[in-house]
From TrEMBL:
MF annotations from Gene Ontology: hydrolase activity
Domain of life (superkingdom): Bacteria
Keywords: Hydrolase
Coiled coil spans: none
Family annotation (InterPro entries): HAD-like_sf, HAD-SF_hydro_IA, HAD_sf
Protein name: HAD-IA family hydrolase
Organism of provenance: Paracoccus limosus
Phylogenetic classification of the source organism: Bacteria, Pseudomonadati, Pseudomonadota, Alphaproteobacteria, Rhodobacterales
Pfam family, one: Hydrolase
Amino acid sequence: MRNVIFDLGNVLIEWDPALAFADVFTTRDAAEAWLDEIGFHDWNRAQDGGRSFAEGIAAARAQHGDRARWLEGYLAAFPVTIENTVPGSWEILEDLAAQGVPLYALTNWSAESWPAARELHPRLALFRDVLVSGQERLLKPDAAIYRRLLDRNGLAAESCIFVDDSLANVAGARAVGIDAIHFTGAEALREALRQRGF
């Protein structure tokens, strides 16, 4: 039986970092402009790669001075950024689980914010294993992170299908021999899986 590996953020769990700063900015546009100003997505990716939040805040303050101060509340506010789920995706996961399909997850996610995901989304227990980039100090789309998941679960690349909303991550999976589906919505994913015999 083939194994299905899911990305989490924006495939199963919606992630909206601007929500963490709703008490600082009066509008979403203002929050998003500030996130762009401080290079939030690159900053956050470093935490996903294993950097601690304390180190990240120090780095942001060194680069942006007092404009970075609001990052200090991000970890505490993080749960509000992941409260919502992607419509229809969990139902697909539950259908696969009911069919006995072995399920795994591979996510770019900070080690320090990961416990919040576990608490808010108990259906993550459907996965046999979740490989969290921040814990491994590896990041998609580097080949090493896909191989880490395969090796620690005794999986052959050709026995797996990977689902991710990032084209770069899809390409990374294919580069190590894993069939991959670019996630654009639950309906399209269900059809792509059906075409693969599920």
